[in-house]
Specification:
The chain has about 150 residues and is of the alpha+beta class. It has one domain: 3-Layer(aba) Sandwich (Aminopeptidase), CATH 3.40.630.30. The protein has a seven-stranded mixed sheet with strand order 1-2-3-4-5-9-6, sandwiched between helices. The protein has a two-stranded antiparallel sheet with strand order 7-8. Helix 3 links the parallel strand 4 and strand 5. The longest helix has 15 residues. The structure holds coenzyme A. Coenzyme A binds next to helix 1, strand 4, helix 3 and helix 4. InterPro entries: Acyl_CoA_acyltransferase, GNAT_dom, NAT_camello-type. It holds the Pfam family Acetyltransf_1. Keywords: Transferase.
């Protein structure tokens, strides 16, 4: 298992990133400004996250995903722990992430990794996504914002 930074000429792992963000257009809107980290197992990409410097000393995980057949094995937690370590090494003081109100597992994972809720952007998904999103039987409307500080 290896987590590495994607090189400049390499293609983004869209098949993974689209699991977290259903619109390629939305991914492309932030991809240029992000570092993309890829988790590989036996040479195949099994996970990825994208990191964006948003404010002084602050980075945000813009996208995080684990291949569907590998979910629930601790890889997501490993990606977040990698992002925290990397951000500390780079001199950041806080790491942020946003997720949908209906993303119950993600909200569980992020809080288990120490993130705390800082706010809610009401109707974010209604305004920014063309198609309605339903998860766990819950309409995804609001963006829950979380932050880890050190
Ligand atoms: C979200 C995602 C990256 C997590 O990766 P994963 O490898 O499946 O997650 P892990 O196995 O590392 O960890 C899951 C953790 O969340 C916890 N969790 C999951 N569902 C939970 C719930 N409903 N309540 C509480 N905790 C929950 C698990 O107990 C586990 O915690 P642990 O590390 O203490 O055992 C992955 O499921 C994914 O790619 N989903 C699709 C894309 C996506 O939604 N990305 C995030 C967009 S905001």
């Amino acid at each position: 298992m290896l987590i590495r930074s994607l090189g400049e000429g390499e293609t983004l792992p869209y098949e993974l990133l689209l699991l977290a963000d259903p619109e390629r257009q939305a991914i492309d809107a932030y991809a240029d400004r992000c570092d993309c980290m890829v988790m590989e197992e036996n040479g195949a990409a099994v996970g990825a996250y994208m990191l964006l410097a948003t404010r002084p000393k602050t980075a945000e995980i813009m996208n995080i995903a684990v291949r569907e057949d590998c979910q629930g094995r601790g890889y997501g937690r490993k990606l977040i722990e990698h992002a925290v370590r990397y951000c500390k090494e780079q001199g950041y003081r806080q790491l942020e992430i946003g997720t949908g109100n209906s993303s119950l597992g993600q909200l569980g994972l992020y809080q288990k990794c120490g993130f705390r809720v800082t706010g809610v952007e009401r109707d974010y998904f209604v305004r920014h996504y063309a198609e309605p999103i339903i998860e766990n039987g819950i309409p995804c409307r609001d963006m829950i914002r979380l932050r880890l500080e050190w």
